[in-house]
Amino acid sequence: MPMAERPYIVGNWKMNGTRAMLSEARAIDRAAQRYMKVEVAIAPPFTLIHAVHREAEQIGVGAQNCFHGPEGAHTGDISASMVADSGAKFVILGHSERRIDHGESAELINRKIDSALEAGLRIILCCGESFETRDAGRAEEFVLDQLRASLPDISDAAERLSVAYEPVWAIGTGRTATTDDIAAMHAAIRGLLDEKYGPETSANIRILYGGSVKPENAREILSTPEVGGALVGGASLSAESFLGIVVGASETEDA
Ligand code: PEP
After folding, report:
1. What pTM value is reported for the model?
2. Do 200 and 178 contact (CB within 8 A), yes or no?
3. How many separate domains does the chain show?
4. Catalytic residues
5. Kind and range of the H or E run holding 62
């Protein structure tokens, strides 16, 4: 099955996890071997990437961020090539917690994407509107502007790109967007990707949904048109709940 057709389920552990969590990663990895029609990955904190990479036989391992420059005097930062060297195969960029807590602009995210591509990494580019923006009826315009300012220009980069639509008000809140809203936003994002890269290239880019995805709602969300997978925060921290989402993905028509 071509890569872009498999549902892609990615756990974002955020600032959670010490070596004690390696047993969860191992459990996720071993169970994922039973669901080969689903592509499963986790992004642990930097400190665990190498250890999870060594444990992982089936799942992909990635980072949650990287610096935009190659190397040098940047205390506390981690470059894309260091991320790749630690065993990561992808990096999440533009997460709303980075945009909001660290003031990351779309332009900075675009530079990080270039660095990550240069280092050979795949990318999950996050976008999403605040509740105020949705309430003002400007969600689509806002998300498409965020993407226009960050998407890489080169179309062969598209092969290594996924986009994650994550309404900020749905992250970690237990609230999810309705499947109609998700379908409408994903269709708008697909329209932009078609316009930028052409439909053939765009078809290789999966659009994930993120925001309080759990075992109970995974199947419905993942069956929504244009939803190619899920970016999962809280529910990825235990193998049991994360695997419940993987099972939901395996039951969709695309799997
Ligand atoms: C996220 O932060 O990417 C996320 C979707 O978090 P949660 O699943 O906890 O809402």
Report:
1. 0.96
2. no
3. 1
4. 95, 166
5. strand 60-63
- pLDDT tens, 128-175? 999 999 999 999 999 999 999 999 987 778 889 999 999 999 998 988
Q: Hey, which of 13, 232, 238, 245 would you mutate to test ligand 1's pocket, going by the most ligand atoms within 8 Å of its Cβ? A: 232
In the block, residue with structure tokens 């689903």 = 38
Q: Give me the pLDDT at residue 175, please.
A: 87
Burial class (CB in 10 A: 0-12, 13-18, 19+), 33: exposed
**In the Cβ-directed half-sphere of 118, how many Cα atoms lie within 13 Å?**
16
For atom 8 of ligand 1, the residue with the nearest CA is 233
Radius of gyration of the chain (CA): 17
DSSP three-state, residue 158: helix
198 lines ligand 1 (CB under 6 A): no
Atom 6 (ligand 1): residue with closest C-alpha? 233
| C-alpha span between 204 and 4 (Å, rounded) | 5
For residue 176, what is the domain's CATH number?
3.20.20.70
Domain span at residue 88 reads 3-254
| CB-based contact 80:116 (threshold 8 Å) | yes
Compute, in angstroms, the gap from residue 106 CA to the centroid of ligand 1. Answer: 20
3-state class of 113 per DSSP? helix
Q: Distance between CA 188 and CA 177 in Å, rounded? A: 15
Residue whose structure tokens are 């949705």: 134
